[in-house]
Amino acid sequence: MSAAAVPLAAPDRPINVVALAIVILLFVLVAALGFVAARWRRGEGTGLHSLDEWGLGGRGFGTWVTWFLLGGDLYTAYTFVAVPAAMWATGAVSGFFAVPYTIVLYPIVFLLMSRLWSVSHRHGFVTPADFVGGRYGSRALTLAVAVTGIVATMPYIALQLVGIRAVLTVLGLGSAENVLLTDLPLIIAFVVLAAYTYTSGLRAPALIAVVKDLLIYLAVLVAVIYLPIKFGGWGTIFDSAETKLGATNPATGKPVGVFIPGAASYSAYWTLALGSALALFMYPHSITGVLATKSRNTIRKNAAVLPLYSLMLGFLALLGYVAIFAGTNPIDLNGTVNPQLVVPQLFLDNFPSWFAGIALAAIAIGALVPAAIMSIAAANLFTRNIYRDLFRPDATPRQEAKVSKIASLVVKFGALVFVIGMDQSAAINMQLLGGIWILQTFPTIVAGLYTRWFHRWALFGGWLAGIVYGTIAAYNVVNPVTKANFGGSIAPIPGTDVQVYIAVVAFAINIIVAVALSLLMRALKLSDGKDITRRSDYGADENDPKVVQLEREHPLAEPGGPTF
Amino acid sequence: MSSPEMSSPDLPMRDMPTRGPARPGPYVITGVLLTIAVVVPLFVPAYSVAEPDLAGMPFFYWYQMSWIPLTSALVGISYWLVNKEDRRRREAVRETPDAEVER
Known about the structure:
The complex is a heterodimer of chains A (564) and B (103).
Chain A: H1 17-36, H2 51-54, H3 63-74, H4 77-90, H5 92-95, H6 98-123, H7 128-136, H8 139-171, H9 179-200, H10 203-230, H11 234-246, H12 266-280, H13 284-291, H14 298-305, H15 307-326, H16 342-350, H17 353-391, H18 397-421, H19 424-439, H20 442-450, H21 456-475, E1 490-492, E2 499-501, H22 502-524, H23 547-553
Chain B: H1 24-42, H2 59-95
């Protein structure tokens, strides 16, 4: 509708003063909340001088706080920007798979996460690699899980910055000529974020998530009711999407996108959904959210109520189609089309400035919550599984908290350099690889929750095989238009032409290798690591005694017995 | 934490069980419910069609969206079943503290 009015080589955008003022106001409010959070539910005596307090918010979040925290953690700003952007650009297969993904996610979470919670609670594990170390007694395997977690998380943090940048660009902050001016608001936002994460730990994103989620629900609810009414119903919106996605792309000679997947893309669609769902709770930031809960059942209860966020995400995805009908024109500062600006631009074009300001603030703040949790999770991995395990086995809780705080600053600084110094597509490629890599820790972590049948070196071999295959396969995907490598996450199963999500094939290879090597190593009777967990640990709840206490009262209890 | 060289001791396990033996019923039902919640939304051939549409929304889109509350309900029922059984098992172990190893 407004498409014709916008010249293609866009000059600097005008600043929308009202919307910008609201975004700044809400940002200041949220930052203040972040600092205040240090005093919220503060532990008696110790303050924030341990990883349990700083890095897991005191391990006491109940159902409500967890709902907001995990909602803010999993449904990130980048999701809000990238999913509608994918719908707008190429349609269902690359965009709407997010809906089945976030559906099948919750049965999986229900099955796995309370066992991980119980064993971690009993032993005081803070990271997934802590559990792997306790279960398999293998330093190499622990390190593999820890490093995979850190490497997969870094680009994810960088992408949160991409989300903030989309909002700032649309608001008119930034200019094609002055790079420093363009990045300055981003740097300020991140310095503030780093400061309150440093002082308040996980409590800051938990408190901010409440504000952010309420704002996002408000913005999406209003948009999905008001915009279809304004544009004459969903029918016209879907018709225009079908027309756009069905048109032929002159560069490839194929349709622009997929409106309803045909038989050829079935396998891509469901493997993307399943692979992503299996991978999500292997990310350290998701596990941090789980381990911060109060009792064994908190995460299970949340698996039943978190899908409300999926519903919101589904409607948000459809806003990508609304933008097709509305003729939203996402022109970046350098004059090129940037699909990631679609949703911010849609709000700015079709709502009064003050409401657009609220919606844009929700997206920008939505970047701060996961960025904080991810940096805490990566910092905890570094502290526990690299600093402590390799260099300072006798580190005190106070030292651990100190190292973790500093590591969280380093991680955020690294992400900032990533986004400002490198091309945005580098962060997206790395994130794509990160998703493939993190799924390769699934067999180690999840099998460990149920059985010790797999040999520790077999799991290591499977992990390595999966990572190598996944990386090569992702590199070999070439973008048909730009001819760049890492052109997508879909590739044929080797030896066939069935298109599937690369991570799922890598995962299958991982498991096959792990099974084969386990059989071999059991036959060779190679030494298995020491298992410090007991069978009862996997069902323990908040009131059951912790291991430290058990050792004192029942010194005969011998860990490492067989588990089936 | 532990030295990777040490092998697992083959001593009989003396464990303090946190829960009594499980009854399979609730877990089997939960397994079925959760399997439905994973498999059905992933079976693309069943829903990759445009008709019947709902208020202008093609079947492909509204069908998948409607699985969100359905999954939520299935997980909710599973929670209720498993939680009830879990509580019973905990009480069982409290009544007979010297119960055998948890099953």
